[in-house]
Amino acid sequence: MVFLIFSVVIIVAGVFLFATNGKKLWDGQHVTEEAPKVMKKEVVQKEKPQPSPKQQVQYDEQPEVGEEIGTLTIPAISSTLPIIHGTNEDELAKGVGHYAGSVLPGMDDNSVLSGHRDTVFRKLGDVGKGDLLEVETRAGLFTYRVNKVRIVDKDDRTVIVPKPRATLTVSTCYPFYYVGPAPKRYILVATLVEKDTTKHWSKAS
């Protein structure tokens, strides 16, 4: 009787061990078959092309002083003005002057525009934070949003300092109704929010 019980126990234990080892063997084979699929999926994900880096705006050539290079549109005051390369009196008499020592509009860094308060920028005081400035040149259409308004001394050189991102700085004399040479400058500082390089300005004939 004891021998019969012992034999049954041995058989049951053998069946249990066989079932356990068989499951482990199946699981191991299943993992081995799935591993290449997982690795292949990871490889595909790694090989997925990454977005190309931001492209810098390009101009074919540097304009000559006195040359018209585009337009400045200020929707807040319903004004579209010609931009002339240079900020001497001859250029400012024709429109908005682009400071030749700064980058051209749309490019990274600080592009500086200036104009007379009694001609092109007569209503610039009505333009403030949040308003848009649109510049169209041969390189494209560039939209900036004003994020800062400054009033500085006329000799303040911080207006033309380099910037870490595409910036448009617009300057005119201040106060607007001052009699004689104004002692200060009204400054709009705007950052690039949109660019469309499929649109190209051309000078009207």
UniProtKB/TrEMBL annotation:
Active-site residues, record numbering mapped to chain: 116 (proton donor/acceptor), 173 (acyl-thioester intermediate)
Biased composition (Basic and acidic residues): 40-49
GO MF term (any one): hydrolase activity
Keyword annotations of the record: Hydrolase
UniProt keyword Nucleotide-binding, yes or no: no
CDD domains: Sortase_D_1
Species of origin: Priestia koreensis
Listed NCBIfam families: class_D_sortase (NF033746), sortase_fam (TIGR01076)
Keyword NAD: no
Name used for this protein in its record: Sortase
Region listing for Disordered, in residue ranges: 40-60
